[in-house]
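Comment thread on ticket #2218

A.B. wrote:
> Attaching the input chain for the structure job we discussed in standup.
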Amino acid sequence: MAGGLAALLDDIAAIARAAAASLDDVAAATGKATAKAAGVVVDDAAVTPRYVQGITPQRELPVVWKIARGSIINKLVIILPLIMLMSEFTPWLLTPLLMVGGLFLCFEGAEKIWEVIRGHSEAEKPPASFQGAAEEKQIVRGAVRTDLILSAEIMVISLSAVDGMGFWMRLISLIVVALVITVGVYGVVALIVKMDDVGLALARKPATEKLGTGIVKAMPVVMKVLSVVGVVAMLWVGGHILLVGMHDLGFHPIYEWVHHAETAVAAATGGAGAVLGWLTNTFFSAVLGLILGSVVVAVVAGVHAAMSGKGGKAAAAGEAGAPSEGGATGENDTGVMD
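C.D. wrote:
> Ran it. Output below, let me know if you need it in another format.
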């Protein structure tokens, strides 16, 4: 009996050690995957606050929550099953899928830049607080749609960091990555959008009045900077995804040229070489993203123009074929039907 109990305790201890080792593996894999996706995470955190600009303070946190909930659904319900199936049966599809998402990011970033250049920036539109609930829903849908692309990039990049693990370990690690990143990103977003309220609360107290006033004055600048960073990050992340994807698919010249420029700058700048080399790669990735994104913007504008032209011609044809006022088709000169 004692021997059986000792054996049982040994088995329990072995299971506990295996479970602890598995948790350590999940933690390590989560950390590795999160670090590898850091660029897209920064993009996500920088892009989202601009969707909340102009919304009344009472609606800011509910809107952030709706976007965060949509982000969780994107990651766990839509993206995770898809990429797990692809990783098992069609792993060659992951790179093209990632590149499609990267091209969409380039398109969105380039579109924002061309809007500013043409003088049609979204900043000129009335904020959601002056538009109504329907416009707020549209803002949430737009943010969740952009998040779908960013979340796909995060999950696919994270998958590439744990692709050497077994199926279930990969699945658990990606679920943890999805939850950790979503809570982290939207926690930061909620903090950013409510900082002005925090500043107002501090400004009401004599001991913290100057600090609170400084925060309130700084937040419009911070939001503007984040908006610019979000657009640049779209181009940088999207361009880098396309750069690496082209290299992985066998088209090497652009990647090799950028890599050569990165290593040359790093070698020539001593102690700051790592940072300046990374900035060089980032700059050329953003330039590539702007070029390719601008091509997509031009194509989309052409398609819209063509569709509008067809619609206008159809309307004109309809007006031309309509009977004239006061005269029915088939009447003779006397006004009597033939």
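A.B. wrote:
> Thanks. Noting for the ticket: The chain is about 80% helix and 0% strand.
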